[in-house]
Each structure stands twice: as C-alpha cells, then as structure tokens.
Amino acid sequence: MIRRVLLVAAAPVVAAVAVGPMLDRLARRITQAPRRLPEEAGLALALDRLGGEVVRLRSRDGVRLVARWVPPDPPPDPDAWVPDPREAILLLHGYSGSITPDLVELGPFLRRTASVLGLDSRGHGASDDGPTTFGLLEVEDVAGALALLGERGVRRVALVGSSMGGITAIAAVAVLGDGRLASADADPTAPAAGPGAPRPRIVGVVADSVTPELAIVVASRLGLPFARRIAQRAFGRFHGLVGGDPRATEPIAVIGLLDDMPLLLVSGEDDRTVPIDEARRLAAAAPPGTRHLVIAGADHGAGHRTDPVAYEAAVTGLLREAFAAARPS
User: What are the residues whose beta carbons fall under 8 Å from the beta carbon of 323, sequence distance 6 or more?
Assistant: First the structure.
C-alpha cells in the first residue's frame, strides 16, 4: 500500500523527467519485440498437419521475409462456398512471436474460404532483423506480400490481423490503397522497370484486438500512473530510430480512410490491454457499415479461443461477402 501511494505521488515527477536517454531506451525497447514465443516450440506438429509450403519474399523496402502458404481446404458442402484460386487471405501476427500460433489456431477455418499466406513480419519468426514499428514499416512487408501474391495469380486479398497485425492491416489499406486505382496506389519511389504481375486488390479487413492509439498498449505494460503520457513521449523519439512516427498511421488516425472497405473489428470485453471502452471508441470512428464483434469474457487476442463459434461465423461471413462482392460479374 505504501509503495502504491509513493508511486502515485511520484508519477508526475517521473512523467516530467522522462526525457532524453530514458525515453530513448524505452523507444528502443519498444522496437525490439520478441522474435518467438516460448509456446511455439510445441506447435511444430500442428504446423506440419496444417501443411503448405514455406516461401521467401522481400518487403517493398528490401527486407527478406519468410511466410507460409497454405492452400484452401474446401468445406464439405460445395454449394455453400467454393474457394477461388485467385483469392487469398494475408494473415498478420501481433507484437510478440511469429505467425505460427495464429496460423495454427486460425488457419484451419480461414482456409475453408481461401488460401492463406501467413507472414512473419520483419524482426519476427524466420524473417530478417528489423525494428518493430506497429505498422509504420510493417506496411512495407504487406506490400511485399501483395507483390508475391500477385505473382501467384491472386487478384483479391483480404487482410486478417490480431493486435499489431490488425493495426498493420488498417494502416496498409490507408497507405498502400486498396488497389482499385492502379496509378494512385503505385509506389512513386519504385524504379522504372518492365510491367510485372498486377497487384491484388484488398477487398476486406478483419482486425482483432486493435487499439485506437499506440500509447494505450505500451502504457498497459508499464503499469505506472501517467504511463500513457510517458509512452506518447517515447513514440515521439521513434523518428530518430526508424525514420518516422508510427502514430501517423495508428488506427484512430487512419481508420476513417477505409471508406467502402468491408471491415470487421473484434474486441474482447475483458481485454486488459485495450479496454473495451477504447475499442468502442475506435469502432465509433470507423466508416459506416463497419461491423464490431464484442466477445464476452475474452482477453486480448483471445476472442477465438473464448468463443470459436461466434468468432468463426463473423470472420467467415465478412470474408466471403467481401470476396463475393469483388468477383467479376
């Protein structure tokens, strides 16, 4: 009790003096996410059962990335849904670890709708080193994955991401465009070259456990009064580390740009990292027509494990409607 009182009393002082080296250390720590989670060692057999192939690609800015391509597994009733070889789901993981846990958990039901490409973002899993930037640079990884999918003949892609993966998915649509306007969505810095495979169109987004503001998730880990203010100041130091401020593409800043994009937000009612009031604030800022699934009793990123029936129904419904609407008539 005494320690808590002292922390509260000292918090304004801590927030005020959190400058220079202290903020730089915190900013660097934020960019150094765990490459793998301890539980991944026990998922090798489940990953083998899922099948697919390991593929290698480069991000738009040249970082070597690793992903796993899982072909579709059509549902038993062909009248319900037939996967199209020109459609795929790009699966994006959260801050810690590789894509393996999400691929093992979500891949079996996602592949009943379309092929799945599970991507290890830079600095994660088997991909090359790179800072973790909550979407700022990870958008370049998405651009590389879209290019790979285009080379494989995929023309329509849905993005599915949890936590940081959801942040990246939303930012990718805002930064890269959805692909409907080729000239507007082109990379102005790309070297002149012959025509390559067309980039797939992004037709829908599922974003699970997404914070409106990045400082909220960092503050939840600091466990200090005024932690959000300290986290905001730490993000202000990112420009010197990674060349930009990830708050420029945080969800609350860009979600309004996803107009006409089928979008499903999934939140856990008991999320201790992104409180449900913050999740609802993001949903309120989203374009009209956005769906928001709130799962009772679910903590951060645990919606599928808590209520797989509701989760799979909502995600499958959004994805299939998005793909069907984008197919040529």
Answer: 84, 87, 113, 114, 156, 158, 203, 204
